[in-house]
Amino acid sequence: MIDMHCHLLPGVDDGPRDWDESLALVRQGAEDGIRAALVTPHLGELDPERAEVVKRKFSELVGRVREEGINMRLILGAEVAFGLGLERLNEFGVGTFGGRYFLLELLPLGFVSPSLEEVLFNLQLKGLRPVLAHIERYPGLVDDTERLEKLVRMRALLQVNAEAFLRKQAKTALKLARMRLVHIVGSDAHDPRSRPMRMAEAYRVVKWELGARTAERIFEEVPEALLSGKDVDLEPVAKEEKIFRRIVHRLRGT
Ligand SMILES: [Fe+2]
Question: 177: domain range?
C-alpha cells in the first residue's frame, strides 16, 4: 500500500511533536504494510523560509528512517491550503509530486468554495492537477456526485482517508469508490495514538466490499502512477455496481 496523505515531520504542523513520535509513526505504517508514503505537511502560504524548514526536516526523516532500518520509501509533498496563489505552486519547490500533482485542502468546516471550478480551470492552464484531500469531510460535495463527476472531468483527483471506510461514513466512501470517485487513499496520520498511520483495515474492507481489483487500484496502482508523474485518466462510473457483481467478487476473492 502507498499512503498518499500523512503528517510525519516533527514540529512543522499539528503532526508529530518530536522525532520519537515521527519514527514511531513510520514504524507503525511499515508494520501495517505501507511500503511508501507521500509526506504532506500543511502549507498555508507560499513562504520560502517554511519551504526550507520542510525540506530540511524531510531529508532528516529520510536519513533517520534509513538508519533505523525501516523499509519505507518517502516522497515529499504538502497539503496545500485552498486559495493562495496556487497557480504559482510549481515554481515554489515544495508541494507538488510527480511534476504536476498536489494535495489540495479545501477550506475547513465542510465549506466548498463556489469558485472551485474556476480555480481548477486556472490550475489546468498551468499544467497542475490537484488531488482534493479527504473529500468525505465535505458533505455538500460527497452528496453531490454530479459535481464530483464534473470536477473529475476537469482533471481533479479525489482522495479519502482510510478511516472513512471504517466509521459511519463507510457507506458513502464505498459508494464513491464504487463509482470511481475515489482515486487514492491516505491515512492522514498525525500521531501514533489518536491519528495513526494505518490503512490495512480499510484495504480489507474495500477488498471485501468492492473486490481486490478496486482495492489494488486505489491503494497501490493509481498512487504509484501519480508519484511517477504518469498521466492518469479515470472516468467516473455513473451507475453503481450491481449487487450480484459484489457477491461474485466475494466468492472469487477478487
Ligand atoms: Fe492532513
Answer: 2-252
CA–centroid distance, 42 to ligand 1, in Å, is 7
| Sequence letter at residue 88 | R
With contact defined as beta carbons under 8 Å apart, do 6 and 187 qualify?
yes
Residue 156 identity: A
The Cα–Cα gap between 216 and 254 comes to: 10
Cβ-contact 165, 137 below 8 angstroms: no
145 and 181 Cβ atoms separated by less than 8 Å? yes
* Residues whose beta carbons lie less than 5 angstroms from ion ligand 1: 79, 188
Query: What gap in Å lies between CA 244 and CA 159, rounded to an integer?
Result: 27
User: What's the CA-to-centroid distance between 107 and ligand 1, angstroms?
Assistant: 12
Angle, vertex CA 38, rays to CA 108 and CA 59, nearest 5: 115
162 neighbors 185 (Cβ within 8 angstroms)? yes
Specify the amino acid at residue 120. Answer: L
Does this model's pTM top 0.85? My answer is: yes
Report how far residue 195's alpha carbon sits from residue 43's, in angstroms, rounded to the nearest whole number: 19
Q: What spacing in Å lies between the alpha carbon of 6 and ligand 1's midpoint? A: 6
pLDDT mean by block of 10 residues, the chain; 254 residues: 98 96 98 98 89 96 98 97 81 90 81 80 91 93 92 94 92 95 98 96 97 97 96 72 61 66
Residue with C-alpha cell 482495492?
215
Cell numbers that stand for 55 in this block:
525540506
Q: What is the dihedral of CA 31, 36, 41, 45, to 10 degrees?
A: -170
Task: Note the Cα 239 to chain centre separation in Å.
Answer: 24
CATH number at residue 165: 3.20.20.140
Number of domains in the chain: 1
